[in-house]
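Feature request disguised as a bug report, sorry. It would help if multi-protein outputs had a clear separator. Right now it looks like this:
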Amino acid sequence: MPYYGGARPPAGPGSVASFGRRLTARVIDYTLLSMAVFLFFVLVSAIADVSLGPQEIADSYFSAWAVLFIFGTGPVMFLHDWLCNAARGRTLGKAAVGIRVVRTDGAPLRQGQSAGRAAVFGLPQTVPCLGTLFTVIDCLSALADATAMQTLHDRAAGTVVVRT
């Protein structure tokens, strides 16, 4: 049964995931990724401190980290979404709230669909401020269609998020 364009799927497994579940999954994903990036930052900083000895770390080191922090969100989200959705059809956040990404016909995602969906969602976040605004509009676009709850990145890839 197609999930998009027809009548609303019945409740239960396979029905379209609510906006609240999707939002909760994203919050979980952002939290886990933020913790991982922070731990990576601490580890690299500790290694740099040990390798440079007791001397002070140069300003260019911190400038490089600032650029990575500001512009690095997009590629990290892209890789996380692409790899997790291609492998299992869900990220860690989606697994925690019991939802999965599938094609509009209910079949598992193809590698290209997963990459395209992740690119439309994650890569705009590399542009400070405007990327965040695009992401908010992208996610809120799911509310425009109560039947399929598709965001812009779902529409671009031909996917829908369903409950499992």
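(second protein starts here, but nothing in the output says so)
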Amino acid sequence: MALDAFRQALAASALDLVGVVAAADARPLVSCGGGPDPLSGAGALVVVASGGRGFWERLERRPGEEHPIDRAGQEAIAAALPRLPGGRLLPLDVRDRFDLRRLGALAGLGVVSPHLLLLLHPTFGPWVSIRGLVAVPDALPTTGPLAYDPCGPCPRPCLDACPVGAYSRAAPFDARRCGAHRLASDAPSPPPAPCADRCRARDACVVGGEHRYGDAEMRHRHRAGLPLLRAWLGA
């Protein structure tokens, strides 16, 4: 089967999580006003993700690149694409128009934690990243969502780990408080603040801790979103 061959080709690059969502179910997860329908003519959307440290450890870094992991993900998926006839890799700016957490949950790649608001995989925990989306013309068997509740029996140390209470047992996640603290943590004055290069709440999740990103990957991922965060907060 073509999808199995595609999975095998991706696994060689440590893109080891692949799920399928019907195009009709994925379409409501696209933000409005961002351009033409990215799923026009598609019957299904294949969601490709990495779990744990493997993809970063295989990453070839090129001088001057700010976000090599995005480029490498697109290249690895494109290299495997001939195994999936009719598959169309969506560009990064189109990928980012989707609600990727909810899309990953629909694809069976985890569930969205009601506390961390991150995608949690049964094996990799919160150490999962969606690397690319492939639209295919034919309908394919879907792979999710999962019947999985990682947070129900958990004592939720993630809620106590946030140093500014953006994650809290008493209130919903405060994105502005989190964002402002992250930007303040990135200030050049020593000593480094607790959230300069990682999310302490995510780090405290009890699921998949053995797959936690290494320090270099954590730092890269955490800092890559700071320009967008500054723009959002007007900082």
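Even a blank line would do. Unrelated, but nice: Residues 112 and 119 are 4 Å apart (CA to CA).
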